[in-house]
UniProtKB/TrEMBL annotation:
Annotated SMART domains: AAA, REC
Modified residues (4-aspartylphosphate): D56
Domain of life: Bacteria
Molecular functions (GO terms): ATP binding; sequence-specific DNA binding
Keyword terms, alphabetized: ATP-binding, DNA-binding, Nucleotide-binding, Phosphoprotein, Transcription, Transcription regulation
Disordered: annotated span: 385-406
Classification via InterPro entries: AAA+_ATPase, AAA_lid_NorR, CheY-like_superfamily, Homeodomain-like_sf, HTH_Fis, P-loop_NTPase, Sig_transdc_resp-reg_receiver, Sigma_54_int
Protein name: Transcriptional regulatory protein ZraR
Gene: zraR_2
Single Gene Ontology BP annotation: phosphorelay signal transduction system
Keyword Nucleotide-binding: yes
Lineage of the organism: Bacteria, Pseudomonadati, Planctomycetota, Planctomycetia, Pirellulales
């Protein structure tokens, strides 16, 4: 077998062994430098770079171990093999702890020496490739940004900074779409595990059997369909972070298993008797009130206390005054912009789906808008209705008698408007473009009105909101 050329530094005080080895290796095509002691070796390393160095342990003056320490201090990037005589294995072990990659016991054949040098060179190459890949991955991993300026979110971000450096479990609570996963990623990125794996599982999205096999892995044949051994997410996340979303949905049968991992890191794959130990930081999220789940007997109390050490509660979007405009601008691509009425409507809305819903609304509006201006016509019905009904504050419904008076008036005005619009539509033979022109309104406005009229037959329809929509 031919080995591609290796750049070797051989440091050996026995002249015979050093010179014979160097000649043999050179004949095999390798580039060999030789030194009889540590000082000579250091001199050579100032001028040359090598893939592999072979240090005799018992060098005169500076020992092989000291030379290794200096090489490491000088951060010289090469693999080091220690050469030991019989009975000096302990020192060889010390050398390996200091970063030598291998050791060989003398006397050794030249073939062995070459083979070990080739292995060391390949290992070094892999190590360098690995750290390059890690650097590429961490550069391409987007930095999590928690867009915010509201007071409650400032408190959340402060907590993120406090809990990030610990390795304790974190529980994140909040309605769906409030940004629990964003916060979990921010905790990971600001902590000491930033360059370690961040693995996620959503307990609500998987059937019970699958949650178990995803989390803990399985042995081949442990259930129908287990055609091969499979590591679980705990093993994959070992050394890093596991984000367990919707932990409130974790099946009761799995809760003791999770508790064990949290207590001492031990776990077993499904169908295996082999105990494994993992070191994983758990960040869990829930949109349920877990204390209520405990009271209802659906969530183990001991597990609840284990994961509820550090808790962050995300406020719903409707309670984050000041965040909405910032989020709109963040998610609205250039060159789109929203007009003042839209901004007001978005600010008034209650956002049951929180930030996720806001992103959808913004994306949808950019698709529907005619130009780059997003208007009320580009917003979903429920938001327009909400704004029209004044539920957000301006024009909000008054109390008692006042409401009744306004409702009575609006109903009559609504009827008038409806019959007028329908009359114009009929006289234009159902042509909506023509009808809108005659009425002096935008075609989309006409569609909205017609939809409203269709609904007005429904007794629950809020007549006041219809009236305001017609006269606006
Ligand atoms: N403060 C924020 N800044 C920037 N983006 C955010 C913020 N909050 C949420 N998002 C974005 O909103 C979307 C939903 O967020 P995320 O998935 O973190 O919510 P969640 O609370 O985990 O939802 P669920 O409970 O449904 O899993 C994502 O696209 C996320 O990037």
């Amino acid at each position: 077998m031919t080995v591609s050329p290796i750049r070797i530094l051989l440091v050996e005080d026995e002249d015979d062994f050093r010179e014979t080895s160097a000649r043999w290796m050179t004949r095999k095509g390798h580039h060999v430098l030789t030194a009889a002691n540590g000082a000579e070796a250091q001199e050579l390393l100032r001028e040359h770079s090598c893939d592999v160095a072979v240090f005799d342990l018992n060098l005169p003056g500076m020992s092989g171990i000291e030379l290794l320490q200096r090489v490491r201090q000088d951060k010289i990037d090469m693999e080091v093999i220690m050469l030991t005589g019989q009975g000096t294995i302990e020192s060889a072990v010390t050398a390996m702890k200091l970063g030598a990659c291998d050791f060989l016991t003398k006397p050794c054949s030249l073939g062995d020496l070459e083979h070990h040098c080739a292995l060391a060179r390949d290992r070094g190459k892999l190590r360098r490739e690995n750290s390059q890949l890690k650097a590429i991955i961490s550069r391409s991993r987007p930095t999590v940004e928690i867009v915010h300026q509201s007071e409650p979110m400032k408190q959340v971000v402060k907590m993120v900074q406090k809990v990030a450096p610990t390795d304790k479990p974190v529980l994140i609570q909040g309605e769906s779409g409030t940004g629990k996963e964003v916060v979990a990623r921010a905790i990971q990125q600001h902590g000491s595990l930033a360059d370690k794996p961040f693995v996620t599982i959503n307990c609500a999205a998987l059937p019970e059997q699958l949650v178990e096999s995803e989390l803990f892995g399985h042995q081949k044949g442990s259930f129908t369909g287990a055609t091969a051994d499979k590591p679980g997410l705990f093993e994959i996340a070992d050394g890093g972070t596991l984000f367990i979303d919707e932990i409130g949905e974790l099946p009761p049968a799995l809760q003791p298993k999770l508790l064990r991992v949290l207590e001492d890191g031990s776990m077993r794959r499904i169908g295996s008797h082999k105990e494994q130990v993992v070191n994983v930081r758990i960040i869990a999220a829930t949109n349920r009130d877990l204390s209520k789940e405990v009271q209802a007997g659906r969530f183990r109390e001991d597990l609840y206390y284990r994961i509820n050490v550090l808790t962050l509660t995300l406020p719903p979007l409707r309670e984050r005054h000041g965040d909405l405009d910032l989020l709109i601008d963040h998610f609205l691509p250039v060159p789109w912009h929203v007009d003042a009425a839209v901004r007001q409507a978005l600010n008034q809305y209650s956002w049951p789906g929180n930030v996720r819903q806001l992103i959808n609304v913004v994306q949808r509006a950019t698709i529907l808008s005619d130009g780059n201006d997003i208007t009320m016509d580009d917003l979903p019905r429920e938001i327009v209705d909400f704004a029209d009904s004044g539920s957000g504050g301006t024009g909000s419904t008054g109390s008692g008698g006042d409401q009744r008076t306004r409702a009575g008036r609006s109903l009559r005005l609504d009827d008038v408007a409806k019959s007028h619009v329908l009359h114009v539509l009929e006289s234009n033979k159902g042509n909506k473009a023509q009808t809108a022109r005659v009425l002096g309104i935008h075609r989309r406005k006409l569609y909205r009105l017609l939809e409203r009229f269709a609904q007005s037959d429904s007794p629950e329809q809020d007549s006041e909101s219809q009236q305001e929509a017609i006269v606006d």
